[in-house]
Every structure is written in structure tokens, then in C-alpha cells.
Design goal:
The chain is built from 14 helices and two strands; from the N terminus they run H-E-E-H-H-H-H-H-H-H-H-H-H-H-H-H. With about 350 residues, the chain is mainly α. A hairpin with a 2-residue loop joins strand 1 and strand 2. The relative contact order is 0.10.
């Protein structure tokens, strides 16, 4: 009985080793593949392998289905309202009529950019929470590091591959929305509207890249994939729900008296706005609102002197970018910091074979 048990254990171990060996051998067999007498760089081989793994995984397909479902739902509501508005007015009444595809809603479903702000973090977390610890637990990480490739190729390739998948998916969704809108309402976007949509899609990719880097960092710090996934989701829930509750309690406790001066009221409102801008989702919401709604002229409190005499007209693209530049800088800085933490942690991580 004991001999049969040992034999079964050796059989299971041998099957696992053969499977892992085939995976690694297949990966590094592609390192020696040549196109036009030139060897493929190991970095791009790992990127292609990671992209293939992402696209074929059930996790990505489920998230893609959810985002597609919400995208078509918001597209249906926006096009329905656009057709009604088009019957009442003309395109000349609103020079940015096409942008309403991404912002218009009747209240039954949020607009497209709100769905991206909510589901985007889940996409980034889903693609990165087991980027390193799954390789380590399966034993493939030590085999990859035993090959003559630089260690940073692996962490860089995982980020580039996931970012490429996210970028392609968002741009396909964005152009799909534009194509359906152009086909149904029959009004093409102007050059400035097209550029605003492109900047919105780039901003969405940057926003998801922050959560991707955070998830990759947690996958390096924690050995179990479930722990890193739960930690990333807990951070997302804290910033999405609980942080706003904390800010509301602080705002209620620090509310100025009824006879406060205008300077005190402005200082109090600016303080609350700055507290909310710590949240990445708030930075994304402010930036997308300014880009997709050109009539937004400021993201902070205004005095009567500032509002008096202002011409109620939409801002050009350059002025909108100047308004959202602090939000863009904040998202870029947060993404770079998370990537730097992931890079340093992985380069210092001790990797042993199991």
C-alpha cells in the first residue's frame, strides 16, 4: 500500500515536472527562433508569451465580457437620448455634439466613462494580482531565471504585455462606440472631438495602469495569489467607498460657522477638494469630465469676481489640458511610483527552486 502511494506521488510529481518543463522549453525554444537570420530579443518573446496567456485566460474573457456589456448598455442609452436631442435641435447648436456619446445618460445607466472608472481597476487587478507569485508557486520562475536572460526582462515584459492588452481593448471599445454613433446619428466627429476622445482613451489606459502596477507589486510582496488579490481589492474598496465616508465626516466636523467670510468658505471648500484628489478615481473623474465636457472651465471653487464677466463658451483642447494637467501628473506619478516599487522589490527578491 505504501509502495503504491509512493508510486502515485512520484507519478504526480513527474507529470507536474513534465508539464512545467514543456512550458519552459516551449518558451525558450522561441528564443532561438529566427526571422530573416536575426534572433528575436528575449524581452519580446516573453511579452508575446504573456499577451497570449492574457488573451486565452478565462479571467480576461470574463472581465472583457463585463466591460463590453456595460459599454453597449451605456452606448444604447446615450444614442437613444442623442437621437431625441437631434430631432429637437441641430448640430450647430452644440459644436461638441458627438462627445455626448461618452457622457450623455438618462439616469438608468451611467455614461461610458463612469463605467470605465468603476470597472477599470478590476481589470488592472485581474491582470496583475498573480503576475509573479503564480510563477513562483508553480516553479517556473526559478527555471526562467536560470536561463541566460536579465532578471528585469521578466517584470518589464509582464507590465508591457498587460498594458498592451489594456490599450488595445480600450481603443477598440472607443472606436467601436464612435463607429456605432457615426452609423446611427450620421454626424461625424470634428478634429477636436476626435482628439479629445483619443486623450480620454489614453487617460483610461493610464488609470488602469496604476492599478495594474499596484497589483503586480502586491504579487511580489505576497506569496499567495489569493492574498495579493484580496489586498488589491481591499485598497480599491477603501478608495471607492470608505475614503469618501471619511472625507464626509471630516467635512462635517470642520464645517465653518454660518457667519464665516468668503475667504474661509473658499479655503474650506479647497481643503475638501484636495482631500478628494488623493483618490485615483477622483483624479480620473475630474480629468475625463474636463476632456469630454468642454464647457467645464474649472475643477475648484470659484469666487464671484472670477465668475463675473466669464464668457459662457466651451474651452479649446489646449486649455482643457492645462486644467487637467495636475490630475494627469498625479496619475502618472502614482503609476511610476508603483512600478518603481515593483521593480525594486522584484530585483531584490530571493528566488529559489522548490
Amino acid at each position: 500500500m505504501e509502495k503504491s502511494h509512493n508510486a502515485a506521488g512520484r507519478l504526480t510529481t513527474s507529470a507536474w515536472a513534465a508539464k512545467a518543463g514543456n512550458t519552459i522549453n516551449g518558451l525558450f525554444a522561441r528564443l532561438n527562433h529566427r526571422h530573416t537570420h536575426r534572433a528575436v530579443h528575449p524581452f519580446w518573446v516573453i511579452v508575446q508569451k504573456e499577451i497570449s496567456d492574457h488573451v486565452r485566460s478565462w479571467r480576461f474573457n470574463v472581465l472583457l465580457f463585463l466591460i463590453l456589456l456595460t459599454c453597449f448598455g451605456s452606448l444604447y442609452t446615450s444614442i437613444t437620448n442623442l437621437v431625441d436631442e437631434l430631432a429637437k435641435s441641430s448640430k450647430e447648436d452644440d459644436p461638441f455634439f458627438f462627445l455626448k456619446l461618452f457622457t450623455l445618460s438618462d439616469g438608468s445607466l451611467p455614461p461610458f466613462h463612469v463605467f470605465i472608472g468603476f470597472l477599470g481597476p478590476l481589470l488592472g487587478i485581474g491582470l496583475g494580482f498573480d503576475a509573479i507569485n503564480s510563477e513562483h508557486n508553480s516553479g517556473t520562475l526559478s527555471r526562467i531565471m536560470a536561463q541566460p536572460i536579465h532578471r528585469d526582462y521578466l517584470i518589464n515584459a509582464k507590465f508591457v504585455a498587460a498594458l498592451a492588452v489594456i490599450g488595445v481593448m480600450f481603443f477598440v471599445l472607443g472606436f467601436l462606440v464612435m463607429g456605432f454613433g457615426l452609423f446611427i446619428i450620421g454626424i461625424p466627429p470634428t478634429a477636436e472631438e476626435f482628439l479629445r476622445i483619443i486623450f480620454f482613451l489614453l487617460l483610461s489606459v493610464l488609470y488602469v495602469a496604476f492599478w495594474l502596477n499596484l497589483a503586480v507589486f502586491l504579487s511580489i510582496r505576497f506569496r499567495q495569489a489569493a492574498t495579493s488579490a484580496l489586498t488589491a481589492i481591499a485598497i480599491w474598496l477603501f478608495f471607492t467607498i470608505f475614503y469618501q465616508l471619511i472625507v464626509n465626516m471630516v467635512a462635517r466636523a470642520m464645517a465653518p460657522p454660518d457667519m464665516a467670510s468668503q475667504e474661509q468658505l473658499l479655503g474650506y471648500q479647497q481643503f475638501i477638494v484636495n482631500l478628494m484628489r488623493v483618490v485615483p478615481s477622483q483624479l480620473y473623474a475630474d480629468a475625463t469630465t474636463t476632456l469630454l465636457v468642454p464647457s467645464v472651465r474649472s475643477l475648484g471653487p470659484l469666487t464671484m469676481q472670477q465668475a463675473y464677466g466669464a464668457i459662457p463658451s466651451p474651452l479649446p483642447l489646449g486649455q482643457s489640458l492645462l486644467i487637467v494637467w495636475p490630475q494627469l501628473t498625479g496619475l502618472i506619478a502614482a503609476t511610476v511610483v508603483c512600478f518603481a516599487l515593483s521593480y525594486v522589490s522584484f530585483m531584490r527578491k530571493e528566488i529559489r527552486s522548490r
